[in-house]
Amino acid sequence: MLEPVKPANAVKSIESRLVSLVEELAVVRKQTSEVKHSIANFTKDIYFTKNTLEETKYSVEVIKFEIRELTGTIDAIQANLKSILWIIRVISIAALVGVAILADSYFNWIEQFMVFSGKFF
Question: What are phi and psi for residue 4, nearest 5 degrees?
Answer without folding.
Answer: -70, 140
